């Protein structure tokens, strides 16, 4: 009897532990995919990557020569079609799902949400306004727009070519191209088509909301447009979080003369890099994976560094933003900025010649430092008492061009916005190359695709005209 009781107690203990584990997983954020509700070892993305390796029967060779039929060999045999230079209008609009032609966007009710974002950034000095950059976002719900085009047409009658049309639809600017103290914090533009589709363009001041916050705001607008009396998630703000910033130590308002390129990192390249990292990083029994962002960031960082061919001893700085809501326990509904900028430093020569797995390790180390950054005291002279001498402008411009900043829009919420016709078929952004002061890329723009692994779209304003062909060539050789 005693043994049976002990066995029963052991079974009950294991069941209780399993329940606690499931509850913990439900509150956890997966490092692999960024979704809630499971941990990394149970991640569907991880399972997909392992299944990819199993089906392909691909094992990286120690001398890094890949046999015919491997993912790398197949990717290199068809590289020319993987890097489109421009978004074609036909590609943008075709194969879009059906949309209700009777959809009416009730933007008049938007004042219920706007009252939480209304106001001017009067407390921020004019020198700091240059830090608050703008982003453009496009929600495409033009399901039947492809019917307006014949199979061989690339533009509508009387309309410019697709890049200009895309700019016309989504590029809405403040009068002086920057958001000043008297300018509205939010601009919206709605374009309706005779076929029933529509485009919603948004420009906002990043000082009032980050990407997750703006996506939450647009989701609330969508709920009101669909007839809800109030948003399901009440907006939360903290006015005291908008602090006065000290004057920057070094500053240059001179644009770098960058060009805008729309590129694609193929899914085969991403899976190959992730599989290679998994093979090397877990050789000693550890369980570590490479995220989609880490793979794409490595490709862009190395290809761009090789393309601009700067002094190999110069720093090639990679920076990227990271959402820290779960680290600081932000309340649900908080839409203000809750991001940090992470830095990865190496010389240009190191980045250009390094193995991709080594670059991924560097990016991971930067991400691991997030908790320490949040807990660190602000004792680095940022209170303005210890100003550094101004840097030579020519040297600063060269260092600026060696920097690459990345921002990812994967799983931040834009793909969930619904104004009444369903979630967007495609989310895009637009940056003005003429005023861009830093090399910049936005990666993982959401786009509905039918079946199979999806490639990653990248909007880049990160190279000058004289380096554009070299950058695209490096991407082609890499993929």
Order of helices and strands: HHHHHHEHEEHEHHEHEHHHHEEEEH
Domains counted in the coordinates: how many?
A: 2
Q: What would CATH call the architecture of the largest domain? A: 2-Layer Sandwich
Query: Outline, from the CA principal axes?
Result: globular
The overall pLDDT average reads: 70
GO molecular function: acyltransferase activity, transferring groups other than amino-acyl groups; nucleic acid binding; zinc ion binding
Family: Belongs to the plant acyltransferase family.
Keywords: Metal-binding, Zinc, Zinc-finger
Organism: Panicum virgatum (Blackwell switchgrass)
General description of the model:
The chain is α+β, with helices and mostly antiparallel strands. It has helices at 2-26, 44-56, 71-76, 89-93, 111-114, 126-129, 162-170, 211-225, 267-281, 292-308, 325-328, 348-353, 356-368, 370-375, 393-401, 465-478; strands spanning 134-141, 186-192, 198-205, 258-265, 318-323, 339-344, 404-408, 426-430, 440-443, 456-464. A hairpin with a 5-residue loop joins strand 2 and strand 3 (198-205). The radius of gyration is 24 Å and the shape is globular. Keywords: Metal-binding, Zinc, Zinc-finger.
